[in-house]
Amino acid sequence: MSHLPEILLAGYRNFMTGRYAAETDRYKSLAREGQSPETLVIACCDSRAAPETIFDSGPGELFVVRNVANLVPPYSPDGEFHSTSAALEFAVQALKVKNIVVMGHGRCGGIRAALDPNMAPLSPGDFIGKWMSLVAPAAETVTSNTMMTQAERQTALERISIRYSIANLRTFPCVKILEQKGRLELFGAWFDISAGELWVMDRETGDFERTSVA
Known about the structure:
Blueprint: H1 6-17, H2 19-22, H3 24-33, E1 39-44, H4 51-54, E2 62-67, H5 83-94, E3 99-105, H6 109-115, H7 127-132, H8 136-143, H9 150-169, H10 173-180, E4 185-192, E5 197-201, E6 208-210
Parallel strand pairs: 1-2, 1-3, 3-4
Antiparallel strand pairs: 4-5, 5-6
Keywords: Lyase, Metal-binding, Zinc
EC number: 4.2.1.1
Protein name: Carbonic anhydrase
């Protein structure tokens, strides 16, 4: 009996004979000296939109936080448990990252849930419903627009939620202060799973522009 799914063990074997074998010195250096990534990426849990794959990054290059719909809650030091806020605190205060990228993606299940007022909770705790309430005001506005198709509403809220999260990042004193000092920059991006396109947010207008690969 295997103690891990066989597909994971097979992947691990490929990793050890492939990437690890090619980058052994890099891994040993990271183990010895610790990590010092310059960029924090806040991304979705979705298995189709892994930042390390999309940005073709090597070990130690990105500090990645993933949650449902790549949301950042507002600063709230209330004594509760805050996974995303804890990771943000560590990245900014301990690792001293220079960049924070909030990266959304197309066909996001969390965003779809936020747009469907009739969607039943997956469990009595309704953790996803409560989490997605972070973008409830925007979801209500987008849903009320009868001139848009469902697909257009989905894409619109996926991108609006990125702007929401960036605004919430600035409610954290450590982020706001460092950004004002020019020591930290905030970015937004949206990945189209189907086409492989990366759309980057204009930091002045908030518009999303497709990145050229040429």
